[in-house]
Amino acid sequence: MHPGGDKILLAAGGALEPYWALYAVHKEEHVLEILSEYKIGVLNPESLKRQESTDPLDPYSGEPSRHPALQINSLKPFNAEPPASVLADSYITPSAIFFKRNHLPVPKVDPETYRLEIEGLPSGVVSVTLSELKSRFPKRTITATLQCAGNRRSEMNKVKQVKGLNWGIAAISNATWSGASLREVLLHYGFTPEVAINAKHIQFEGLDKDVTGAAYGASIPLNKALSEEGDVLLAYEMNGEDLPPDHGYPVRVVVPGVVGARNVKWLGRIVVSHEESKSHWQQNDYKGFSPGTDWDTVDFKSAPAIQELPIQSAITHPAEGSSVERGDEEVTIKGYAWSGGGREVVRVDVSVDGGNTWHVAKLYSSDLGQNPAPGRAWAWKLWEIDVPLPDGAQELEIVCKAVDNSYNTQPDTVGPIWNLRGVLSNAWHRVKVKVKDDQK
Amino acid sequence: MHPGGDKILLAAGGALEPYWALYAVHKEEHVLEILSEYKIGVLNPESLKRQESTDPLDPYSGEPSRHPALQINSLKPFNAEPPASVLADSYITPSAIFFKRNHLPVPKVDPETYRLEIEGLPSGVVSVTLSELKSRFPKRTITATLQCAGNRRSEMNKVKQVKGLNWGIAAISNATWSGASLREVLLHYGFTPEVAINAKHIQFEGLDKDVTGAAYGASIPLNKALSEEGDVLLAYEMNGEDLPPDHGYPVRVVVPGVVGARNVKWLGRIVVSHEESKSHWQQNDYKGFSPGTDWDTVDFKSAPAIQELPIQSAITHPAEGSSVERGDEEVTIKGYAWSGGGREVVRVDVSVDGGNTWHVAKLYSSDLGQNPAPGRAWAWKLWEIDVPLPDGAQELEIVCKAVDNSYNTQPDTVGPIWNLRGVLSNAWHRVKVKVKDDQK
Predict the structure, then answer these.
(1) Which CATH class is domain A71-302?
(2) Which of A13, A325, A435, B72 is the most exposed place for a label (fewest CB within 10 A)?
(3) From the list A224, A309, A407, which residue is nearest B310 (CB)?
């Protein structure tokens, strides 16, 4: 019944240690407590072979080094977010502190022997080298924000425990990405309108694999991949340099406007198909449910895989529990706002009294000040506002909510969007700050 | 300062009566009260020419007859919605009770002399007859829901007075529309990629005109009009018959997924342009603002014209203030749900305790049961659920909220999305119902 249970069963009769090393996210006391219910006995110590637990057995032993500022949610696989306080200080997030969300060990890929396989075209399987990808296709560059479906999950956990990494507000970052257009690659290798009669999805497989050899996988609708305005890239550069190992070196998919989980890293295979990816992450994870749905009643087939994400915003300054001086008369508030599907953020409303009265923040986008084309606003907006301190207030409840150009807005509270996987957490962000009387 | 003030000024020195007849929506006591502040004197009765106010002077004297079931919000221009109680009884709304939103008198158009002018193409102005439109282009049919930007405005009025017609929950309806594809028409008459280098908008002008001769107008982004997946129609049929006079006979634009106001009726002119329509309704109306923005501070240039609408749903049964019998043990709840931009409604959550606990409703779409293509879910879904009566409850607060396939959802409350024009009212819909003890 557990997600991925069919893989756990492959361990039957063998050592569990490699599984514990790979699915290290389970190494927590409450998981061990649950497992203890299913204990049926102990092996005869005489028949127990000693397991080596030195580095060579640890699939995570070759991971890259990471920036010490990152706030780590899980070491194996590595999942970390930048400190929220620095997130809105730069429109482009430096790659080293860009949030990292790995599902499996980081694979080591040799750029010389790297091959991208493309299946499902009339010409049969195509194998493309890295240098072919770079030389045969124009280098396209976009600025796009990626967000994990679990961003702000910690706020859902406060309502009621959910399953998943306890992300704060910074499982979101913004970078420039350069690479070949997936549309142009597919057309070059023989995609025709006839193919589209049956094909409805583009599947991606990573080179990151679990102990059974199964790769991370996901898919997106064909029309997103084929649209000239979809801007889907086979990216080999991030912020003007080769992709870092944690972000998919040498090639990843960047599907702008779409949840991070479909932006498959260490891309090994593309399959043009009539069906979605069969992977656990497409079928039995990364879907949204009603707050009334629990693990006894959930039917993963009943909900669509998350693709475009809903409107989102959060306050990066001031921090929860900090204080402002009454004599300052104003409080400066900063944050980010973004919406999926290329929908441009057109307004951020900010309140310092819990949502009773509202002020409109100033929005910032790229230094170039270019307006995105309609439906292609892939990057976030940063925002800032100085709000007068209300007379006599001892505490401020600072709230933000964003509006996109489809005039979708964020729900007021977390409870009614709570879901058992803790995804899609986009209620108003709230931060409480004390107002201190000035030192005499 | 009043919207349309430049047109009011054209009346200076002349009779006001034709303006009062045309902008009949202003014929209300509180408008007269405001105007009385600006009274600067009375004309010498000797110099006052008698004005005829018989029918020939009333531009609304030739309006079509209407179904008596319609609930009228304004007679001149005619604005009416069907009774909410019947709205969800039919997936396709009968044309006679489809909500009607006219801005000006209904023009009488002779199909024999009707011409659609198309401007802004390299070939110069093109003039197309109705029979050419029908014979030169394949007849395309879509099912699409139209919604007025002011649907559910009455709920905003309860928070604080707004300007606009006091719509209930039924300024939304669903029909099949047939006509020529706007994309195919533009390509046929010479639209080329070179045109698109400068052109960014498609403007529409109606044949409905005010006393100065200015037509109703609106525009949509060029990419919506040109996309194969945009499905924009020059429709000449509604529900399988000629368009009724109130719905744009002989030709209207149907822009699926986009606010009603851009679906221009009695279409007289199409202009391919580098700029949006200059009309009042595009520039100074049908835009969303922060709840903190009032008529003293509003800058209409600061907000984008509403195009795609946000996720929406409402309860059509039971009615506010009605009652259920405790012995029935369950209450049957029905309604509609829809989202703009072709985003499909994937779930409707229903609560009978004000939003503390939630149940998932069953969704219904067309009888054909066809799944819409991704991004082309133009039609609403109807929904229904039987919810057990909570033990001992004396009153139910029934609430619904919908989720679309971008996982956008509705905000919890009206206050924080309140805006001075009362548009985009899409908070959770709430209906209070009494639970009556059974008759002994």
Answers:
(1) alpha beta
(2) A13
(3) A407
DSSP A295-333: TTT--GGGSPBP-BPPPEEEEEESPTT-EEEGGG-EEEE
- Is B317 known to be catalytic? no
Q: Calculate the average pLDDT of chain B.
A: 91
Residue A354, CB half-sphere, CA atoms under 13 Å: how many? 2
Confidence (pLDDT) at B51: 40
> Domain limits of chain B?
5-57, 71-302, 312-436
To the query of whether residue A101 is one of the catalytic residues in this protein, the response is yes
Any CB–CB contact under 8 A between A349 and chain B? yes
User: Tokens representing A290?
Assistant: 């009603």
Query: What is the CATH code of the structural domain delimited by A312-436?
Result: 2.60.40.650
Put simply, the answer to whether A290 touches B401 (Cβ < 8 Å) is no
What is the predicted pLDDT for the residue at B21?
52
Output the CA–CA distances (angstroms, integers) from residue A152 to A156, A341, A422, in the order listed. Answer: 7, 20, 9
Cis amide prior to A18 (ω within 30 degrees)? no
Q: What number of CA atoms fall less than 13 Å from residue B53's CA on the CB side?
A: 11
CB of B397 less than 8 A from some CB of A: no
Please give the backbone phi and psi of residue B212, each rounded to the nearest 5 degrees, phi first: -85, -5
Closest CA to A408 of B31, B49, B404, B16: B404
The pLDDT, as a whole number, for residue A32 is 82
Low-confidence ranges of chain B (pLDDT < 70): 1, 3-25, 45-55, 367-370, 439-440
Q: How far is A20 from chain B (nearest CA, A)?
A: 34
Q: Are A265 and A206 in contact (CB under 8 A)?
A: yes
Q: Tell me if A358 sits within 8 A of A351, measured CB to CB.
A: yes
Q: Look up residue A329 and give its amino acid.
A: E
Inter-chain touch A310–B411, beta carbons under 8 Å: no
Residue A183: the pLDDT is 98
Which of A26, A66, A188, A326 is flagged as catalytic?
A26
CB within 8 Å: A303 and B359: no
**ipTM of the complex model:** 0.87
Please tell me which residue in B23, B114, B148, B252 is annotated as part of the active site. Answer: B148
Closest-CA distance of chain A to residue B280, Å: 20
CA distance A246 to A96: 9
Q: Tell how strand B267-273 and strand B359-360 pair up.
A: unpaired
Q: Which residue of B has its CA nearest to A224?
A: B374
Q: For residue B78, which of B217, B213, B245 has the smallest C-alpha distance?
A: B245
Whole-angstrom Cα distance, residue B148 to residue B100? 9
B216 is catalytic: no
Q: How many CB pairs under 8 A join A and B?
A: 114
Question: Is A357 touching B (CB cutoff 8 A)?
Answer: yes
* Start-to-end Cα distance in chain B: 63
**C-alpha closest to that of B434 among B331, B315, B361:** B331
* Residue to test with chain B: of A223, A301, A407, most B Cβ within 10 A: A407
CB contact under 8 A, A292 and B359: yes
Q: How many CB atoms lie within 10 A of CB B331?
A: 20
Q: Which residues contact A313 (CB under 8 A, 6 or more apart)?
A: A335, A336, A337, A338, A345, A348, A383, A400, A401, A402, A410, A429
Q: Which of B419, B106, B69 is nearest to B248 (CA)?
A: B106
Residue A363: C-alpha distances to residues A84, A202, A336, A412, A438 (Å): 18, 35, 9, 21, 31
Residues B295, B300, B304, B307, CA torsion sign? positive
Tens-digit pLDDT profile for residues A139-168: 999 999 999 999 999 999 999 999 889 999
What is the total residue count of chain A? 440
Closest CA to A411 of A390, A426, A392: A426
A293 touches chain B (CB under 8 A): yes
